[in-house]
Specification:
The structure holds two protein chains of two kinds.
Chain A lengths: L1 H20 L1 E7 L6 H20 L8 E7 L4 H14 L4 E4 L2 H14 L2 E4 L14 E3 L4 H14 L4 E7 L2 H16 L3 E8 L7 H8 L5 E5 L4 H11 L4 E4 L6 H4 L8 E5 L5 H11 L5 H22 L6 H11 L1 E3 L3 E3 L9 E7 L2 E8 L1
Parallel strand pairs in A: 1-2, 1-3, 3-4, 4-5, 6-7, 6-8, 8-9, 9-10
Antiparallel strand pairs in A: 10-13, 11-12, 13-14
Helix pairs in contact in A: 2-11, 3-4, 5-6, 7-8, 11-12
Chain B lengths: L1 H30 L6 H17 L4 H29 L4 H23 L14 E4 L2 E4 H23 L1 H11 L1 H6 L4 H27 L7 H14 L4 H17 L6 H18 L9
Antiparallel strand pairs in B: 1-2
Classes of the chains: A alpha/beta, B mainly alpha.
Chain lengths: 361, 286
């Protein structure tokens, strides 16, 4: 009997020792609800990076694990998940996405010194929300500025704005107005839509009635349905948007013919894309690539923290990222502040292809 | 031109909402249960039709099968879940919570099976445009108006001209008296929820045919339909339908004078004021 107990103890202690070798992080993403499509892609990006690093032996011998929590893109649910991961699981770092949830968690991250890494949300408020919130992509302000200047330069000087009534959508609208006006354009109308809704007809009708040269769009979901209903109106003016137009369903839809948009440069090697497809039976979409890149930035920072013999804390991971500053992943990501700079393209959807119009430096 | 197009769009949306309202009202007026899972039946019927169309079933066949499946599901929810809860003397609040739970389960199953992505029916004709003077509509929008108005007329006829319809109204009016006259309220409840579920499947298919399928899309129409049912007069089929159409038209037309952020708040604000002056609703149910 004593032998059995001893044997069990040895097994348990052994397991604990192995568990100590694993460094665990968190991810609070919308895995269900209207943001579920994007959140699921983000989860796959993290999973892919984690699987690859673990297959290569981990970071300095430490395996990586990620606990995923579903927040349905809701700020209140995000707070609950954050407290669960931090207070119960004692995790030093959490991946986040969507502006509302990220902004809700930011004060908690500051108070508890937990690193938040956002690779999907772009509201301007994220840039200064917390010293512990690092954004691996620029805010909408930067992206909108590039788009509006390009539009004004192209002779589109009268604009209508369709925006989502959410933190990201409103931020996008405000940036469009500020930067477009500064570029010499005039905003003649603006209309909101609700996050997750697919009936854009009333808003589109009202915007079309203002006879703009261009309609600037700041919505994060249902862009294909918006495009279809726009095409059904039978009007002929330019439609322009941001990275959220990088939706395979939208690009493949004839209704989106001629839409222009800014696009964060996000290149993936064919071998890597093929490996992803083999493992997950899906294409390596934009948000997969974003969170794959963000995960690899984290692994590089973890490597530095472990190499220096420091404890794996949110503070040390954040300091490591800001010290390393430049990361060469799928695209170069540079942290001059807690919001990274990444190169942009201006692209046009033509013949069901997303084609490069102009590379912006 | 803008006003006319907004008016017509409001009428199209209102017809679909109206059918949700009369189906929910039929169930509520008879069973006195707040059948929130009705939103799940609405959503699931669209997905069933989508699956069938994807497997090559003609659209009309898919619609009929999905409506039959919705009727079966509604009947099961009433016959198995609600009846059992009533047998155990559960309060209406407990039944409401059970109904909410059923809705959550259905939405999760739909999201797990079909993914949370917005899905579209692979029927190119559905988004083709028809110009009627200055107004442009898709074939789906035209179909929505025609079928939903037919469903409204059919329910009116069924409720007032058939024996089963009269039995349902008798049970709705006084279930104890109905039981004395050998009507079996529990059986009537199953029947009425099945009928309501089959009816709600119609907008449950037609609206996604136009705007796409989403697992969590049933709640908003159900909430609006509930308001229409109350404001129209509980038990009044015509009142529920008319108010639902009125809400949708008002929401669309309000864009002429105010930004879209205010349209929902102002529309429902008007109805709150209306209810203050006429708390029994527009029409008294019979």
């Amino acid at each position: 009997m004593i032998r059995i107990v001893v044997a069990l103890l040895v097994v348990c202690l052994g397991s604990a020792a192995r568990a100590d070798d694993t460094v665990t992080f968190g991810a609070i993403l919308p895995l269900t609800g209207p943001g579920g499509l994007i959140g699921t892609q983000q989860k796959l990006g993290i999973q892919f990076a984690m699987d690859r690093i673990n297959a290569a032996g981990g970071v300095r011998g430490h395996k990586i694990a990620v606990i995923f929590e579903d927040n349905q893109a809701k700020p209140d649910q995000s707070i609950l998940s954050f407290n669960k991961l931090v207070d119960l699981q004692h995790l030093p770092m959490i991946f986040t996405s969507f502006s509302g949830p990220s902004l809700a968690m930011a004060p908690l991250a500051t108070r508890k010194h937990i690193l938040l890494i956002n690779a999907g949300a772009q509201a301007d408020a994220l840039a200064k929300a917390s010293p512990y919130l690092l954004n691996t992509l620029p805010t909408l302000g930067d992206e909108a500025g590039i788009l509006t200047h390009w539009l004004a330069k192209s002779g589109k000087t009268k604009a209508a704005i369709l925006f989502e009534n959410s933190a990201a959508g409103i931020s996008g609208r405000d940036n469009y107005i500020t930067t477009y006006t500064a570029a010499g354009g005039t905003v003649v109308a603006q209309e909101p839509s609700q996050f997750g809704q697919t009936d854009f007809r009333p808003a589109l009708l009202k915007l079309a009635d203002s006879h703009p040269d261009v309609m600037m769009v700041s919505i994060t979901a249902a862009v294909q349905q918006m495009a279809q209903q726009f095409a059904q109106l039978g009007v002929k003016f330019q439609v322009a948007g941001t990275t959220f137009f990088q939706d395979p369903a939208l690009i493949a839809d004839p209704a989106a013919e001629g839409f222009v948009h800014t696009q964060l440069q996000s290149k993936v090697a064919p071998e890597l894309a093929a490996e992803f497809k083999t493992n997950y039976h899906a294409e390596m979409e934009f948000f997969v690539r974003q969170y794959y890149t963000a995960s690899n930035i984290l692994f590089v920072a973890l490597d530095k923290v472990l190499a220096e013999g420091k404890p794996v804390t949110g503070e040390n991971l954040r300091d490591a990222i800001l010290t390393i500053k430049k990361f060469d992943g799928l695209v170069p990501v540079v942290f001059n502040s807690n919001t990274a700079t990444v190169p942009f393209d201006i692209r046009i959807i033509h013949d069901k292809q997303d084609q490069l119009l102009e590379e912006m430096k | 031109m803008l006003a006319l197009q907004l008016l017509v769009n409001g009428l199209v949306t209102g017809c679909a909402l109206g059918v949700v309202a009369i189906s929910f009202g039929l169930i509520y007026a008879t069973t006195k249960l707040f059948h929130v899972a009705h939103a799940g039946v609405y959503t699931l019927s669209g997905y069933l039709a989508w699956s069938l169309v994807g497997h090559g079933v003609p659209a009309i066949g898919a619609m009929v099968v999905a409506m039959a499946a919705a009727a079966l599901l509604g009947g099961l929810i009433q016959g198995v879940l609600y009846a059992e809860l009533e047998r155990r003397r559960a309060t209406h609040l407990v039944v409401l919570i059970a109904s909410l739970g059923t809705l959550a389960v259905m939405q999760n199953i739909i999201a797990a099976v079909y993914t949370p992505n917005i899905l579209q029916f692979p029927l190119p004709w559905s988004s083709r445009m028809v110009s009627l003077g200055a107004v442009r509509l898709t074939w789906t929008q035209i179909l929505t108006v025609v079928l939903c108005l037919s469903a409204f007329a059919g329910i009116m006829w069924f409720s007032h001209r058939t024996i089963l319809g009269k039995q349902i109204r008798a049970v709705a009016s006084n279930p104890f008296l109905a039981e004395i006259t050998r009507l079996r309220p529990q059986r009537i409840y199953v029947t009425v929820v099945a009928i309501g579920s089959a009816v709600v499947a119609l907008p449950g298919i037609l609206v996604p045919l136009d705007l796409g399928l989403q697992p969590y899309s049933g709640i908003t129409p159900l909430l609006t339909a509930t308001i229409a049912m109350i404001a129209g007069g509980i038990g009044s089929i015509g009142g529920s339908f008319l108010v639902a159409v009125g809400i949708a038209v008002l929401q669309n037309m309000s864009l002429l004078i105010m930004p879209g952020e205010w349209s929902i708040g102002v529309t429902f604000g008007i109805f709150i004021i209306f209810m203050l002056f006429r708390p029994t609703g527009l029409f008294k149910g019979r």
